[in-house]
Amino acid sequence: MKNLVILGSTGSIGQSTLDIVRRFPEKFRVVGLSTNANIEMLAGQIKEFHPRCVCVRETRFASALRLRIKGTAVLYAQEEGLKQLVSRKDVDEVVVAISGSGALVPFVEALKCSKDIVLANKESLVMAGPIIMKLARNANVRIKPVDSEQSAIWQCLEARDHKTLKHIYLTASGGPFRRMPLRQLKKISVRDALCHPRWKMGKKVTIDSATLMNKGLELFEAMYLFGVSAEEVKVLVHPEAVIHSMVEFIDGVVMAQLSIADMRIPIQYALSYPQRLRADTLPALDFVKLARLCFEKPDFGRFPCLRLAYEAAREGGTVPCVLNAANEIGVDAFLRQGLDFMGIPRVVERVLERHRKKESPDLLDIFSADAWARQEARGVIGAFKN
Questions:
Q1: What is the rounded CA–CA span in Å between residue 37 and residue 32?
Q2: Closest CA to 17 of 268, 199, 277
Q3: Around Cβ 374, how many Cβ atoms within 10 Å?
Q4: Do 264 and 279 contact (CB within 8 A), yes or no?
Q5: What percent of the chain has pLDDT over 90?
């Protein structure tokens, strides 16, 4: 029986994780849950899973939840509450399913407390990958990826000598606009951008998938999780989203992981590792119906965010953190209809041009670069409007 804390339990990954707990109550126990502000859903999760403690990041919502749960669980609040949640002695694994940069502090705290991590957050590794991986090594803990692409690579590389690896192929569906003429991309609505052709995800990751920044963030994940360079990671557009990633070895052999597009599959694998549990409630792949699998190179002209991610990966230092922060602000502005779709990469590029890199940052440097980039991105967006 594994005792789990699920950070971001009211998001799409958090809900999928709880679905797995629901199907395997003899394997997993929920000790803690957290949300940013969705206390309505969290209250229902508390009633069903009876966690010992919960955290609400926004204080005003924490006060409202306290009245509803009436002492049935210890209630923490704010960022400090997340740190208290993950540091409890009765916690075996922490599922990091908070989106965006807000996951970094509790993620680091969990590592310092020697908790194994089930990771469903890209941004923390983008911001501070070298620091995080050093903490994990020093604490002798495992970081088990949940992203379908990173899970696929992990499974293909399992128990194999990483020195025999030649290339990692990250597959991308291409999002809803891979065939759209470049001149039309500026006119894309928020509603259209949120209609992903294959996956059901949160708003931020869905927009990142539409711009291909999501694949850029996964580039950093692969680099840090598997110890490879940016040049060793190739992106392939694969519209069917059946092959979730591939690994090519030095002898020419390519191994791929295939499954239906359902996040419960990689989540379940990470939770149950090294075991594999049955997934009878999910449909199996039908190879006859697949008919064909297609691949193409990504178009950096249509998707400049991916180009910017590769450039930031080669630069290193504080540059990936700045890329991530500027993108978060750009995506938020687009969702609020204060920026057009192609304005997102323009904001990111402008902020990167103005950044003075620090080569070997510590966490304080990371937080400083993050704050600077957010302020700079807001200024760039304001200038676009004027």
A1: 16
A2: 268
A3: 18
A4: yes
A5: 81
| Domain made up of 2-145: CATH architecture | 3-Layer(aba) Sandwich (3.40)
For 100-149, the pLDDT digits (tens) are: 999 999 999 999 999 999 999 999 999 999 999 999 999 999 999 999 99
Q: How far is residue 127 from each of residues 222, 331, 346, 369, measured CA to CA in Å?
A: 14, 17, 20, 9
Whole-angstrom Cα distance, residue 354 to residue 369? Answer: 12
Longest pairwise C-alpha distance within the chain? 62
Better pLDDT: 175 or 84:
84
Distance of CA 367 to the CA centre of its chain: 19
Question: What does the domain layout of the chain look like in residue ranges?
Answer: 2-145, 148-262+282-303, 316-386
Determine the pLDDT at residue 386: 65
For the CA atoms of the chain, what is the radius of gyration? Answer: 20
Name 6's bridge partners: 33, 95
The rounded Cα 342 to chain-centroid distance in angstroms is 22
Q: Which two tokens stand for residue 376?
A: 């700079």
Task: State the first-to-last Cα distance of the chain, in angstroms, to the nearest integer.
Answer: 57
Task: Give ∠ CA 109-265-90 in degrees, rounded to 5.
Answer: 35
Query: 116 near 92, Cβ under 8 Å?
Result: yes
The domain over range 316-386 is classified in CATH as 1.10.1740.10: yes
Q: What is the pTM for the complete model shown?
A: 0.93
pLDDT digits (tens, 9 = 90+) for 256-265: 999 998 999 9
Handedness of CA 115, 361, 123, 255 (dihedral sign): negative
8 Å CB contact between 31 and 2: no
Q: Cα(306)–Cα(204) distance, rounded to whole angstroms?
A: 16
In angstroms, the CA 312 to CA 317 distance is 9
> What are phi and psi for residue 76, nearest 5 degrees?
-105, 165
Q: What is the mean pLDDT of residues 79-87?
A: 96
Give the tokens for residue 1: 């029986």
CA distance 169 to 204: 23
- The Cα 271–Cα 101 span in angstroms is 23
Contact 85, 55 (CB under 8 A): yes
Which of these, 37, 114, 112, 46, lies nearest to 77 by C-alpha position? 37
Name beta bridge partners: 170.
Answer: 235, 245
Query: If DSSP codes are grouped into helix, strand and coil, which group holds residue 381?
Result: helix
